[in-house]
């Protein structure tokens, strides 16, 4: 039975994961880590469940004692220093935090040299399948079909484009033999000129309580293909993260993703 520590336990995703873990017996929630303002509160009650006896702790070192795996859903500024502690203790981690810059991605790669890490921009099984279908479609419908991505999220989301939107664009461009960093367009304004063949537009929409929606458009002359994934319940991300936490325990050091967790070929 894997014992899970939830880093960011009082956040939206942390509480969702608490609810998912309460449904089964393996893995189990053993520790809850969050800021001092909520320390001492029962995380079960915070999640709208019965008290489970797991109190939120702000002392990270103490909270990591006796756990088998950590799930991290916080913010890059909190995650990066946290990774240093995990490396020293040899604890596997599922990283659900998004919005990392180059420094944060480098920290994840470094952590993967000593412990197994699952790092995915989105833990939904459906989104993982979206990536696989998008890669196939982008490769088959290449020249003559322009690739554009639109992603929608709730008004409180702080990073843009979403990690999933960026990953989807990377998958599409890689399938076409292109470099996302050299061809990306994040919105257009003014007299930008005609669209080039190789560019990929990624547009972010923010509003209301939208959980998450990503659409790949392959637009040709007189026809277009649309591949869409819509999330209507945040629990899908929690279920995927919990599945990843159970899977990563006992794996060799390295950086894995949901394709590894689900046993799928990476596009």
Overall description:
- The protein is an alpha/beta fold and 267 residues long.
- It folds into two domains: 146 residues, 3-Layer(aba) Sandwich (Rossmann fold); 107 residues, Dihydrodipicolinate Reductase, domain 2 (2-Layer Sandwich).
- It is 35% helix and 22% strand.
- The chain has ten helices and twelve strands.
- The strands form two sheets. The chain has a seven-stranded parallel β-sheet with strand order 3-2-1-4-5-6-12. Strands 8-9-7-10-11 form a five-stranded mixed β-sheet.
- Strand 10 and strand 11 form a beta hairpin.
- Helix 6 runs parallel beside helix 7.
- The longest helix has 16 residues.
- The radius of gyration is 19 Å and the shape is elongated.
- The two termini are 32 Å apart.
List the helices and strands and how they pair.
Layout: E1 3-7, H1 12-21, E2 28-33, H2 43-46, E3 56-57, H3 60-63, E4 69-72, H4 76-89, E5 93-95, H5 102-111, E6 116-119, H6 125-140, E7 146-153, H7 163-175, H8 180-183, E8 184-185, E9 200-206, E10 212-219, E11 224-231, H9 235-248, E12 254-256, H10 258-262
Parallel strand pairs: 1-2, 1-4, 2-3, 4-5, 5-6, 6-12, 7-9, 8-9
Antiparallel strand pairs: 7-10, 10-11
Helix pairs in contact: 1-9, 4-5, 6-7
């Amino acid at each position: 039975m894997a014992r899970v520590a939830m880093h960011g336990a009082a956040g939206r995703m942390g509480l969702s994961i608490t609810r998912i873990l309460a449904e089964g017996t393996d893995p189990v929630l053993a520790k809850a880590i969050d800021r001092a303002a909520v320390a001492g509160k029962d995380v079960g009650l915070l999640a709208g469940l019965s008290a489970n006896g797991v109190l939120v702790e702000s002392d990270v070192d103490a909270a990591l004692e006796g756990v088998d795996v950590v799930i991290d859903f916080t913010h890059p500024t909190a995650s990066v220093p946290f990774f240093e502690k995990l490396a020293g203790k040899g604890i596997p981690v599922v990283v659900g935090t998004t919005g990392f810059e180059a420094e944060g991605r480098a920290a994840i790669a470094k952590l993967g040299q000593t412990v197994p890490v699952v790092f995915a921009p989105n833990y939904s099984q459906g989104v993982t399948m979206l990536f696989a279908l998008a890669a196939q479609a982008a490769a088959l419908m290449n020249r003559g079909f322009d690739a554009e991505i639109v992603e929608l999220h709730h008004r409180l989301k702080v990073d843009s484009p979403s990690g999933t939107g960026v990953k989807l664009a990377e998958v599409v461009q890689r399938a076409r033999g292109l470099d996302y960093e050299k061809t990306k367009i994040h919105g257009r304004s003014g007299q930008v000129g005609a669209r080039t063949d190789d560019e990929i537009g990624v547009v972010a929409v923010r509003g209301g309580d939208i959980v998450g929606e990503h659409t790949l458009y392959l637009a040709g002359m007189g026809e277009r293909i649309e591949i869409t994934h819509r999330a209507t319940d945040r629990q899908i991300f929690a279920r995927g993260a919990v599945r990843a936490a159970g899977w990563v325990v006992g794996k060799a050091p390295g950086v894995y993703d949901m394709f590894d967790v689900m046993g799928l070929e990476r596009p």
